[in-house]
Design brief:
The protein is α/β, with parallel strands linked by helices and 286 residues long. The chain has helices spanning 47-54, 72-77, 96-106, 111-124, 140-152, 170-187, 198-204, 237-251, and strands at residues 2-13, 21-32, 36-40, 62-67, 70-71, 81-84, 158-162, 190-194, 207-211, 218-224, 280-284. Bound molecules: adenosine-5'-triphosphate (ATP). Residues 265-286 are annotated as: Disordered.
């Protein structure tokens, strides 16, 4: 089963106008069900645009976008995915519980079903005791967990996340990364995750997709094999080798993009560019 399939996808904003922007070009990407894939690339390379195309929030200029084997527009109507952005985007006047219930309301679920599902999701993200709180009473990390619970409330097979932990401190971010992996493993959810952080991409992903500066193209895909993704994995040679592989793929032949470098990664002996190490196998696009 394929979670996401993009074929020959391009995106041009404002075509034919003086402010025309070629954001994406020739994107081919297939994500099998259950995979965790990160998109990484320099600022403005089209990562968010790619996510929005998958979510059918903006149309492709060329090519096809399928989610769960359906055209993206059909998949959106069928709520085949949940989405979480950098800002949690919670409704301040709704309790945590009622924020999580929202997508179920939109789906016309009964009150009892909404309540049961929201309770289940809040337990999953460790916020069962905060169901009656309002967003302003929660920390940033807790708000982001509510957003994840809301995104998962309809049990979507796919989760789309755009820098969801970007505004959080490092400790909270690492904790939520581990929680997210546990949730995805428990629910079998496929994930497409946009990030600027090489270390975050490597820790979370089965596959890191590296993009070129605008118009964004896929220049390399790096398979990451870390085994159990726990604290020890963050110290493993495999982790650092994968970080090095991603960083080298990002640098490519051009100037170094503004990407968050992983702490300590620079100290690791680097394998030759875009080669397979014990932790990763990198495939450079033609
Ligand atoms: N609605 C829009 N109208 C016109 N241009 C747009 C629109 N949305 C995005 N763009 C342009 O498309 C390009 C890609 O933007 P996008 O936000 O996808 O990049 P990104 O890789 O997510 O950037 P960042 O890492 O800085 O968040 C940029 O040049 C941006 O200015």
């Amino acid at each position: 089963m394929t979670a996401v399939s993009l074929t020959g996808v391009s995106k041009i904003f404002n075509p034919g106008r003086p402010d025309e922007v070629a954001a994406l070009s020739g994107i081919d990407l297939t994500i099998p069900a259950g995979q965790f894939v990160s998109l990484i690339g320099p600022s403005g390379c089209g990562k968010s645009t790619l996510l929005r195309l998958i979510a059918d929030l903006t149309p492709a200029s060329a090519g096809t976008v399928e989610v769960a084997g359906k055209p993206a527009a059909r998949a959106r109507l069928d709520q085949e995915y949940g989405i979480a952005f950098q800002q949690a985007g919670l409704f301040e006047w709704r309790t945590v519980q009622r924020n999580v219930e929202l997508p179920l309301e939109l789906r016309g679920a009964s009150r009892a079903e909404r309540r049961a599902r929201a309770t289940e999701m809040l337990a999953l993200v460790g916020l069962a005791d905060f169901a009656g709180h309002y967003p302003a009473q929660l920390s940033g990390g807790m708000q982001q967990r509510v957003a994840i619970a809301r995104a998962l409330a309809v049990h979507p097979p796919l989760l789309l996340m755009d820098e969801p932990f970007g505004a959080l401190d490092e400790m909270t971010r690492e904790r939520l990364q581990s929680e997210l992996l546990a949730i995805c493993a428990q629910t079998g959810t496929s994930t497409v995750f946009v990030t600027h952080s090489i270390s975050e991409a490597v820790f979370l992903s089965d596959r890191v997709v590296v993009m070129s500066p605008r118009p964004g193209r896929i220049t390399a895909t790096i398979d990451v094999e870390l085994g159990t993704r726990d604290d020890a994995a963050r110290q493993s040679p495999a982790y650092f080798a994968a970080i090095t592989a991603v960083r080298r793929a990002l640098r490519g032949p051009g100037p170094v993009p503004d990407i968050v470098e992983a702490e300590g990664a620079a100290a690791v002996a680097a394998p030759s560019p875009r080669t397979s190490g014990p932790a990763s196998s990198a495939t450079a696009a033609p």
